[in-house]
From TrEMBL:
Lineage: superkingdom: Bacteria
Keyword Transmembrane helix: yes
Domain GGDEF: 415-559
Protein species of origin: Paenibacillus pabuli
Annotated Gene3D superfamilies: 3.30.70.270, PAS domain
Protein name as catalogued: Diguanylate cyclase (GGDEF)-like protein
SMART domains: GGDEF
Coiled coil: 360-387
Listed PANTHER family: DIGUANYLATE CYCLASE DGCM-RELATED, REGULATORY COMPONENTS OF SENSORY TRANSDUCTION SYSTEM
Length: 564
């Protein structure tokens, strides 16, 4: 037996040892499953190459040779799948895509196993230790080269993509070296042991050595960058997304972890020493620096914090530095966790709030003035709420509110007063003939005529519909009658133009009067609202009497004296 064949067994043992090492030192994920599939295919090649030399049975020799080339056929697809996982493109790979990825490798493997008409391998000297290769061998080689080229495309795309992280780019570059080494040794094996087999002796182990060396590159990537360590990846992602600066120090105050946020205000990296006192001297400290440093050095299992002002690139930032010791299971301090919380925005808000306090104080006087103006506006709004929008007279609500107080005062001080209730005669006929628009004009002109006929101290209100009530303060029976007659005549003589000034409308009114001038039997009522309702009812009865007696006339009400 040629001693060189033991190289394949030796390399198989090494590959087996590497596989055990990786399996024992990393957590199992989908990435690991892909790697171990890939690793198992790599191990089959040197094992089968060695096993084929241990037997004189040509059938077993053929079995081992075919099995080794089946492994090689599938190795290309395994390599491409592994590179897809390493570059982070696995999320884009669908189930259909995964199936199609293995189709060429499976076709090549089927051709190897079938070996139709010895189109793949031909025995020499009665066995397969010495063998020649047919056309299907080159088909398998083309498939392998295609897989390697596809792997190169994936790797180079990851290297030159702006979306690929720096860590993945480093992993990809090392993986490219692994592909290069395997390609070189596989090419040398094909040239020496296939192309030049007629003229040169067989040199075993070349492809096995290439497989082993390329696997070492993969293992280096796995262990150096923890590409398969799911917990490490998650830890790094989480710590780098935290907006606080984080430094993890060991017991010798050497930085063992620093997230991205910490690099925005300090030029320290993993492996650098961190001197707390020197650092605090380089920044402005708000509070007791000595107390914080003493607490930090004691490594007591409690939190301590201090505020810092850091100036960097003409930018001033405020931070809350919080220190917490790291202890082991025996509560022995083994390091520190330092967090730097950026509170610049909060401090800005405090300053802005103080500045605005002055402005607010200055505006208080303006607010007082505005409050007075609002009070005046509210008074005017209330006045509007008590006014009839059509005639601009006071409305019934205002009259009721005013008389509730006025009537009681008049009774207390025995001051005479009168109420006039007037109604437009046949107003419904006007609405029916001319429409409500002309009816509204009649109401407006009637109110204007009445206003011109009464005194400035008299209060005219629109009592409801076409009815108006006039409150006459300090007015006895005779004077009330004179004012009522003046009002009746003013309305009767008032001509209202309608139908584009072609037709004139003349109206009359009926008036009921209620006068109070004899207070000998009157006393202050206990229920002013009820008393006022009786007054309205009395004057309304007088108006009804005027209507019954022919309209366009005045009638006086007879109010029944009594306690209300």
């Amino acid at each position: 037996m040629n001693p060189l064949v033991w190289y394949d067994l030796f390399l198989f043992v090494l590959l087996f040892g590497v596989g055990v090492y990786v399996f024992a030192t990393v957590r199992i994920t989908n990435l690991h499953k892909v790697y171990f599939l890939f690793h198992g295919l790599m191990m089959l090649w040197p094992f089968c190459q060695f096993a084929s030399t241990l037997t004189d049975d040509s059938g077993l020799q053929l079995f081992y040779v075919l099995l080794s080339f089946v492994a090689v056929s599938l190795l290309g697809s395994g390599w491409l799948l592994l590179t897809i996982f390493i570059t982070g493109y696995s999320e884009r790979l669908s189930a259909k895509g995964t199936f199609l990825l293995f189709v060429p490798a499976v076709i090549g493997a089927i051709g190897v196993v079938a070996n139709p008409w010895n189109e793949f391998v031909i025995p020499l000297e009665g066995g397969y230790i010495e063998r020649a290769y047919g056309p299907w061998f080159w088909v398998v080689m083309v498939i392998l080269v295609s897989y390697f080229l596809a792997s190169l495309v994936v790797l180079f795309r990851a290297v030159y993509s702006s979306q690929t992280s720096a860590m993945i780019k480093k992993q990809v570059r090392i993986t490219l070296w692994g592909i290069f080494v395997l390609a070189v040794f596989a090419t040398i094996d094909a040239i020496l042991n296939v192309v030049l087999a007629r003229w040169l002796p067989i040199i075993p182990g070349m492809t096995s050595l290439g497989i082993f060396l390329s696997d070492l590159f993969f293992v280096y990537v796995i262990k150096r960058y923890n590409v398969f360590d799911l917990v490490s990846i998650a830890h790094e992602d989480v710590i780098n997304t935290i907006p606080y600066g984080i430094l993890v120090l060991d017991e010798n105050e050497v930085i063992v972890e620093a997230n991205k946020a910490s690099r925005s205000f300090m030029d320290l990296h993993v492996g650098d020493s961190f001197d707390m006192e020197v650092f605090l001297e380089s920044v402005h400290v708000v509070g007791s620096c000595r107390e914080f440093v003493n607490h930090y050095k004691k490594k007591e299992n409690t939190l301590s914090h201090i505020e810092l002002i850091v100036e960097r690139d003409n930018n001033i930032r405020h931070y809350i530095l919080q220190s917490s010791p790291i202890v082991d299971s025996a509560l022995v301090p083994i390091g520190h966790i330092l967090t730097f919380q950026d509170v610049s925005q909060e401090r800005f808000y405090v300053k802005e709030m103080n500045r605005q306090n002055v402005t607010l104080q200055e505006r208080n006087q303006a607010l007082d003035l505005i409050r007075q103006e609002l009070s005046e506006a509210n008074r005017k709004l209330e006045e509007l709420a008590l006014t009839d929008s059509l005639t601009n007279c006071y409305n019934r609500r205002y009259l009721t509110q005013h008389l509730n107080h006025e009537v009681i005062t008049n009774i207390q001080y025995k001051t005479p007063f009168s109420l006039l209730l007037l109604d437009i005669d046949y107003f419904k006929a006007i609405n029916d003939r001319y429409g409500h628009v002309i009816g509204d004009e009649v109401l407006v002109h009637t109110a204007e005529a009445v206003k011109q006929s009464i005194r400035s101290t008299d209060i005219l209100t629109r009592y409801g519909g076409e009815e108006f009530m006039i409150y006459l303060p300090h007015t006895e029976h005779d004077l009330a009658n004179q004012i009522a007659e003046r009002v009746r005549l003013a309305v009767e003589s008032n001509r209202i133009m309608v139908d584009h000034e072609i037709t004139q409308v003349s109206i009359t009114i009926s008036i009921g009067i209620l006068s109070f001038e004899d207070f000998e039997v009157e006393h202050v009522p206990d229920n002013p609202e009820g008393y006022l309702t009786q007054l309205f009812a009395a004057v309304d009865k007088a108006l009804y009497q005027a209507k019954q007696n022919g309209r366009n006339r005045i009638e006086f009400a007879a109010f029944e004296r009594g306690v209300v």
